[in-house]
Amino acid sequence: MPFNLLRKIDYNLRMSLKAVTLAEIERIFEVLARLDISREAVVIPLRPAHPGGVRRLPNGKLEILVEGQTSLDEWLPELERQLAAVTAASA
Q: What pTM was computed for the model?
């Protein structure tokens, strides 16, 4: 029997994100739109980080560090909470 038929595949394994692509950025833009945050008000580095998060830069923009060890679907609600907290704190 071929090897690949004997092997169990766990499709729930989390692959670490190697780079932030347009697909991830577009999903983040959806969160920004819900919170009425301008795309021009954020910086999204193309290298993922662990942990991901949000911080306000000295120039006033928000830096969004995309989580590299958790799936984007799991992390986006946390991103939304963090963005809401950072923007509320500065209001």
A: 0.81
CB 54 within 8 A of CB 44: no
Of 45, 46, 55, 47, which is closest to residue 79 (Cα–Cα)? 55
The 3-state secondary structure of the chain reads: CCHHHHCCCCCCCCCCCCCCCHHHHHHHHHHHHHCCCCHHHEECCCCCECCCEEEECCCCCEEEECECCCCHHHHHHHHHHHHHHHHHHCC
pLDDT of the chain along its 91 residues, tens only?
444 444 444 444 455 889 999 999 999 999 999 999 999 999 999 999 999 999 999 999 999 999 999 999 999 999 999 999 999 987 6
Nearest CA among 6, 12, 15, 39 for reference residue 25: 39
